[in-house]
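Researcher: Please predict.
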Amino acid sequence: MKIFGKLLPDRRSRRDAALDWASDIAGSIFYSVGIYTFAKMADFAPGGISGLALILNHLWGLPIGATSLVINLPLILLSYRIVGRHFMLKSIRTIIVSTLFLDFVFPLLPVYQGDQLLASLFSGLFFGLGLAVIYMRGSSTGGTDFLTMSIKALRPHLSIGFVTMAIDLVIILLGWPVFGRIDSVLYGLIAAFVTSTVIDKVMYGTNAGKLAIIITTHGQQVANRIDEVCSRGSTVIRARGSYTEMDRQVLLCACSKAESYKVRLAAHQTDPSAFVMITETSEVFGEGFIEPEENVKL
């Protein structure tokens, strides 16, 4: 048993390492498609250090990946105390992998030279998908990602997509004088918006669900009916109507999107006068949903 006890952590660490490398490779491929395949020839900066590297590439022909790597160095040093050694080391590995793809693999592949609007849309799609894959393994592509994750660590209530959008805006505006057209800013904004939306949808949308808020005078009966219909528990809170001054119960029931209709129907079947509100939840952690993960450290 002691032998197996020693082997299990090694197996887990090997599995985690394999997943980290897989996410670095897959994320870097998506990331490079967004930057090199779609944004490079469309004359706009999608934001972030990669956008800044694209601007420098446009001006002086500097390699995108290597330029991003050089710009990242001072930002790594500035953010080290906040993001921590573990996050920094994983990010350095990701930066190196993405640099190899950007400077050595994708220059050998064809780039998109069609409609700029389509280029901005697909640049944001692949760029956001790549970042989300990398973020979910507790890493980043460096640059403004270090600032983004630092702000996220200090202000957990802010979404990563929103913080990324705010930081990217400054870099996107630099594209106006460089590319010489206001269209470059507009296409950059489109790409940044798509990027932030994809990041939030991939990272939070997979864990999204519904929250049913039910106000009724038959709290326990409604809760029992919901349990019968879709095997979901409810939390019953005692309440009092401010207008009627009648005692009521408020039920909180977290459920999936597919189950929300069943929950509402169960409430109205039990109490036709029940007041039911269905709201969106970006993430639901706990029994029956997503187990809290404490293994990702910044």
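Model: The two ends are 33 Å apart (CA to CA).
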